[in-house]
Amino acid sequence: MNIVVLVKQVPDTATERKLTSDDFTLDRAASDGVINELDEYAIEEALLLREKHGGEVTVLTMGPDQATDSIRKALSMGADKAVHLVDDALHGSDALQTAYALSKALGTLEFDLVVLGSESTDARTGVVGAALAEYLGLPQLTLAGKVDVEGTAVTVQRQTDYGYDVVEAQLPAVVSVVEKINEPRYPSFKLIMQAKKKPVAKLGIADAGIEADRVGVSAAGTETVEASPAPPRAAGTIVKDEGDGGAKAADFLAEKKFV
Amino acid sequence: MAEVLVLVDHVDGEVKKVTTELLTAARRIGEPSAVWVGEASDSGTAKLAEYGAQKVYTAPAELNDHVVAPTAELLARLAEEKGAGAVLVSATAGNKEIAGRTAVKLGSGVLTDVVDVSAELVTDHSIFGGAMVTKAKVRTGTPVVAVRPNSVPAEPQAGEAAVEAVDIEVSAAAKGARVVERVAQEQGERPELTEAAIVVSGGRGVGSDDFTVVEGLADALGAAVGASRAAVDAGWYPNQFQVGQTGKTVSPNLYIALGISGAIQHRAGMQTSKNIVAVNKDPEAPIFEIADFGVVGDLHTVAPQLTEEIGKRK
Fold first, then answer.
1. Considering only alpha carbons, which residue of chain B is nearest residue A19?
2. The domain spanning residue A79 has which CATH number?
3. Right CATH for B198-313 from 2.40.50.140, 3.90.190.20, 3.10.20.580, 3.40.50.1220
4. What is the nearest CA distance from B23 to chain A, expressed in angstroms?
């Protein structure tokens, strides 16, 4: 079974993240890039499925040159090869344009399953998996807390507000995963060394058949028109518990009419 | 005035609060039309009328037998047929997916996790764990907007709520992912996390899988229970209650953080709460930077006292 796992490089959430002042797109120079955390779970799940069913795991990343670091990290976890969709024309693409571009890049690959994290920690739109399924015309098995493949059928536990739905489809399909699904492995030294030699194919928009006028910030269906630091919250009252901390908290709740 | 479609969230025939919030927002933009997948109940329809829905489009419950795609087909078709001014859904994980697919079908832009929306359809967002605020708009097609629960205060205004059944033949392509079983996990009598007006969450400081101290306070306030990632990772509380960057995003009127340090991972899921109360042993915990009221102390003594005081003052 051949699996393509989608990996996004995002700014490290532990650093101060910024938008550029001109077009309000992500300022990638402002913070270190790391693999989107939920994508690590996607990589792990792809590797687990490969261990069980054989085949190859291909990493597909859309992003600027520096995203290579994240691609190497994904390869050092154990993926077999990678495709890097990289083109200046893609700069500032919004979630739906990203899904479109990825769908076109996937069109150049052979796969039974696409696996991705359910959202990215930077934009957090949570729509790419669904939009990708729409563009590809494939079954959408998103928000999965468990994935099983048997023959040509794939079954997931889709997380819902009340618990989960068991959802079935035929391969090929698009699966997005949530955090609880597994525990991502750490790359071993051996795999890190091997990853340096694994093939990474670069793909431009023309190679993927992506029309230049459909991607990038100027063609986006959405536009950020203003961005500013959040106004600071008014400083709160902090008290030390002297045996009456709970009562004082109750006073605060009473003052705010919660009790 | 253009119709504004509002996807109704309902459980057991009752309309969820977020839908009344969406109807309130929709009235700023145009004329609200509710879209109900399933058979609209009388009490639900009455609720939609109370918040200004002029129409209630209903579609067969069978749409929910397949994941997301059929509902997106329904919304896209109605938006085209009615020349809708916008489509609004609640910003839950599943509904954001519906929004995304609907927007692809309409060739529109989609905006998610919106915390406010103006009559001109300029949306407010809180991003990067609450560190920045942005305004955005849709440039192409019918705007599809996912609004975070508890963001727009619901205000009643009477509407007709005329029920109209929609005939829809779901395409084969939309039936790719079939729901074969629904498994409800125990939630008890507490309100749902993302909808709740008050949320009480426990973190590392709770110290074990005994969450009674958190649940006791929550029940005294009629609140939902949440948990930090540390508590969920430790196996102390089930995953679906996790608040934070990789869990649920909540925006209640009151958020009480018990034994939660307030790392960015957690703040991303609760920073837009209107009032924040924190109890933590560590006076340097970052949660105190965003708390309106904080108690430096042991949650195991402070929280039970608070619970008892609430009981006395009722």
1. B132
2. 3.40.50.620
3. 3.40.50.1220
4. 22
Local structure of residue A67 (DSSP, 8 states): G
φ/ψ of B153, rounded to 5, equals -60, 130
Residue B24 and residue B26: Cα distance in Å, rounded? 5
Size of interface A-B (CB pairs under 8 A): 295
Judged on CB neighbours under 10 Å (0-12, 13-18, 19+), B116 is middle
- Quickly list H helices, chain B: 17-29, 42-50, 69-82, 93-106, 212-221, 229-233, 264-267, 287-290, 299-313
pTM of the model: 0.94
Structurally, what CATH architecture does the domain formed by B3-175 represent? 3-Layer(aba) Sandwich (3.40)
Window 261-280 of B, Cβ < 8 Å to A: 264-265, 268, 275-277, 279
CA-to-CA distance for A42 and A6, rounded, in angstroms?
A: 8
The number of folded domains in chain A is 1
Task: Identify the weakest region by mean pLDDT among A161-165, A222-226, B24-28.
Answer: A161-165
Domain-embedded: residue A232? no
ipTM of predicted complex = 0.95
The pLDDT tens digits for B56-102 are: 999 999 999 999 999 999 999 999 999 999 999 999 999 999 999 99
| Chain centroid to CA A10 | 9
Query: Which one-letter amino acid corresponds to residue A108?
Result: T
The domain in which residue A148 lies consists of: 3-219
Name the token pair of B64: 């929910």
Q: Where are the domains of chain B?
A: 3-175, 198-313
**Separation in Å, CA B309 to CA A77, A119, B217:** 52, 41, 10
Nearest to B275 by CA among B298, B294, B248, B262: B294
> Using one digit for the tens of pLDDT, what is the confidence trace for A94-144?
999 999 999 999 999 999 999 999 999 998 999 999 999 999 999 999 999
How far apart are alpha carbons B239 and B271 in whole angstroms? 20
Cα separation of B10 and B16, whole Å?
5
Quick check: A256 and B254 CB within 8 A? yes
